[in-house]
Write a structure and sequence with these properties.
The chain has ten helices and ten strands. Bound molecules: 5'-O-[(R)-(carboxyoxy)(hydroxy)phosphoryl]adenosine and zinc ion.
């Protein structure tokens, strides 16, 4: 069981996520698991701009948050939670301040403690919401719009960063490639859908860093190679006919890079368990390739909990209840390295 020995009392934790363009709220019970969750995606609001506009994001969180809180409380059948967890960073500061401010206000009104949660730790712990949660230790491949990280996880808060991206995050590479191909934001699902109609061997794009030592990533070379191929197809008047091949070949190169690096990390750390989380973790090819090439256990959150959501913040808050305080300090960190977190209750 996930909670034996970790949490001594039974608690309902309300989680609030507002770090970017999704307003997520959930209630997690340390006794009964996830009781309710709700999400409002702002994708439509930002799609016209081809990316997230921070000011629009903050305003929409403000509009959506309280109704979502009321909804999940009603669905959970509880009047008030015993603790409140909110995403304190990393993320868009204005957006974080909406969630943190609301959480602090509610904690004063309800007299319950407040747990600041690291967004990427939320992603990392999202598989704990599933029926067969991973046991420690494991390798975490955290792949989102803002991060690409390989982490050796020895326990809650015991994180050693093994590798990260030297330039773009992998989700960002999906988003930028999608833009080049005239697809809508967010690019990941759009590229994956278009790739189904294409030939992944049509172009041989670089698998950046795969043959280099270490465990870092780099996606700018791949991005440039795709851009050159797109321009060439455009100049030849063939872009419409080649879009699916370009999407499929890009996706294959990006996923081969992630899988190659994750397997290398597992081998180096002698761990036979990998957790994949973050938005790009929803990618089918990634899941299929890891299943095919890795002998050990692989854990994912369900696809809906790969992208941003309140449930991962609620469960991370539940596991970090010893970090809770009644203080009214609201944290909102644009940058916050995951490996500085430490174990719960240890400052
Ligand atoms: O974790 P997330 O929701 O937000 C951040 O914390 O960044 O990740 C969003 C990223 C976007 O870049 C999106 O294009 C990517 O995840 N993504 C995918 C897929 N679904 C979402 N990338 C590849 N394949 C997918 N199916
Ligand atoms: Zn995220």
């Amino acid at each position: 069981m996930l909670y034996s020995g970790t949490i001594r009392c039974l608690m309902n934790v309300l989680g609030i996520e507002t770090s970017c363009d999704e307003t997520g709220v959930a209630v997690f019970s340390t006794e009964r698991g996830l009781l309710a969750h709700a999400l409002h995606s702002q994708i439509d609001l930002h799609a016209v701009y081809g990316g997230v506009v921070p000011e629009i994001a903050s305003r929409d969180h403000l509009r959506r948050l309280l109704p979502l809180v009321q909804r999940v409380l009603a669905e959970s059948g509880i009047e008030r939670p015993d603790a409140l967890a909110y995403t304190a960073g990393p993320g868009l500061v204005g957006a974080l301040m909406v969630g943190g401010g609301m959480a602090a206000g509610l904690s004063i009104a309800w007299g319950c403690p407040l747990v600041p949660v690291h967004h990427m730790e939320g992603h990392l712990l999202a598989p704990m919401l599933e029926d067969e949660p991973p046991e420690y230790p494991f390798i975490a491949l955290l792949v989102s719009g803002g991060h690409t990280m390989l982490i050796s996880v020895r326990g809650l808060g015991q994180y050693e960063l093994l590798g990260t991206t030297r330039d773009d995050a992998v989700g960002e590479a999906f988003d930028k490639t999608a833009k080049l191909l005239g697809l809508t934001y967010p690019g990941g699902p759009a590229i994956a859908a278009l790739a189904e109609e294409g030939d992944e061997n049509a172009y041989h794009f670089p698998r950046p860093m795969l043959n280099r030592p270490g465990l870092d990533f780099s996606f700018s070379g791949l991005k440039t190679a795709v851009m050159i191929a797109v321009r060439a197809a455009e100049a030849a008047g063939e872009l419409a006919a080649r879009r699916a091949d370009l999407a499929a070949s890009f996706q294959r190169a990006a996923i081969d890079t992630l899988v190659g690096r994750a397997l290398k990390a597992a081998k180096r750390e002698q761990l036979d368990r990998i957790v994949v989380a973050g938005g790009v973790g929803a990618n089918e090819l990634l899941r299929q390739q890891i299943a095919e090439r890795f002998d050990g256990e692989v854990h994912y959150p369900r696809p809906a909990f790969c992208t941003d959501n309140g449930a991962m913040i609620a469960v991370a808050g539940a596991l970090r209840l010893t970090d809770a305080s009644l203080a009214n300090e609201i944290r909102a960190e644009a940058r916050w390295p995951l490996d500085t977190l430490g174990m719960p209750g240890v400052a």
